[in-house]
Backbone:
């Protein structure tokens, strides 16, 4: 079954009770039992929900996995993965990652004795320099947020497997339409389903997909024990969004490529970060592990200051100044003061996240209008 067909059909059957073609929203907190412990597979909605189960099956198929586990947000999904670790364990993470992921590792789990190291994952020697007998997890983002670096998934996973270390790939920026990390050796794939999977900026949701049964059992246990589960309405919205994922991504990627080419030639732009540009250092690698180059990009202004960035941010009409990404609408943001504000400035600057860096989530509008909007704001 090809990807577009999976978005519509994988794990989805007409409702057995009514024949409803669209998966119903099972808005219930509990289920009637015939006798104590004798039920129809559902006891309590934190543990199981039919709407959530269908979504979990669909996500597993899209990511070429066997088990999907859904959560109330992407960070709740990440939190559950980190709960599999024990005090004294260590994580090696990409040094360019979402600010919320950094905050969870550095400010929440570090005080519980779980230490994280942040390295350039394109340099195997930097990874291996931090590996020791306490290393339990490699944490990968690719493309990275917000510098759009491309990390070699197969290479990192091979390093991990040789040493019995788990690898999790945050696939939020790419979506399962653009890359399938489990097929490249990853053990876990994480999504903020709020983003491209939902696609309409109307639900907050997270998911993890795995192939290994024992890993799945641990995650299902923690899903139920900690209870950070999504409601059935949000599961329904993500299921609905997924049905057009491939169509939305194709259009958004086309738009992003055109905008990146425009910005690269603009006199007020110092640098454009987009893996679809031949000048991008990860361009050739991206061609091997991604279907298209994505709809996220960032750029730096010639005048490298917060004030210069703010002038651009305040003057777009179609690009909405807002957190998040992956919706049908185009968004513009300032990572240093928004999504990555929790990362100390000196750490941000080490990876090139300057005060003038602006991040775009390119939507599916007519690209001519989007370019005109950016051109006017830059003027």
Residues:
């Amino acid at each position: 079954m090809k990807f577009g067909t999976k978005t519509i059909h994988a794990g989805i059957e007409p409702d057995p009770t009514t024949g409803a073609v669209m998966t119903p929203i099972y808005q219930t907190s509990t289920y009637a039992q015939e006798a104590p412990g004798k039920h129809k597979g559902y006891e309590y909605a934190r543990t199981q929900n039919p709407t959530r189960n269908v979504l979990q099956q669909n996500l597993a198929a899209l990511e070429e996995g066997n088990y999907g586990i859904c959560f109330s947000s992407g960070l709740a999904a990440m939190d559950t993965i980190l709960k599999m670790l024990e005090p004294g364990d260590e994580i090696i993470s990409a040094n360019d990652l979402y600010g919320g992921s950094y905050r969870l590792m550095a400010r929440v789990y570090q005080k519980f004795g779980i230490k994280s190291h942040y390295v350039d994952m394109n340099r195997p020697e930097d990874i291996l320099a931090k590996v020791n007998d306490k290393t339990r997890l490699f944490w990968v983002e690719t493309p990275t947020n917000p510098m759009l670096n491309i990390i070699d998934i197969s290479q990192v996973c091979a390093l991990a497997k040789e040493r019995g270390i788990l690898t999790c790939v945050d696939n939020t920026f790419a979506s399962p339409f653009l890359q399938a990390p489990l097929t490249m050796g990853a053990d876990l794939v994480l999504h903020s389903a709020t983003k491209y999977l939902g696609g309409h900026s109307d639900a907050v949701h997270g998911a993890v997909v795995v192939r290994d049964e024992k890993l799945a059992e641990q995650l299902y246990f923690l899903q139920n024990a900690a209870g950070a589960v999504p409601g059935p309405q949000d599961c329904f919205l993500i299921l609905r969004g997924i049905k057009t994922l491939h169509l939305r991504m194709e259009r958004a990627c086309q738009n992003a490529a055109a905008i990146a080419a425009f910005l690269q030639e603009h006199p007020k732009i110092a640098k454009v970060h987009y893996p679809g540009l031949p000048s991008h250092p990860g361009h050739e690698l991206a061609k091997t592990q991604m279907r298209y180059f994505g709809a996220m990009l960032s750029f730096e202004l010639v005048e490298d200051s917060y004030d210069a960035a703010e002038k651009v941010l305040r003057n777009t009409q179609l690009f909405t100044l807002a957190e998040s990404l992956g919706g049908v609408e185009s968004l513009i943001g300032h990572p240093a003061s928004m999504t990555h504000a929790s990362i100390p400035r000196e750490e941000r600057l080490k990876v090139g996240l300057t005060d003038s860096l602006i991040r775009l989530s390119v939507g599916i509008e007519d690209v001519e209008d989007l370019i005109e909007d950016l051109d006017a704001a830059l003027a």
About this structure: The domain at 3-242 is CATH 3.40.640.10 (Aspartate Aminotransferase; domain 2). The chain has two domains: 3-242, 245-378. The longest strand covers residues 135-141.
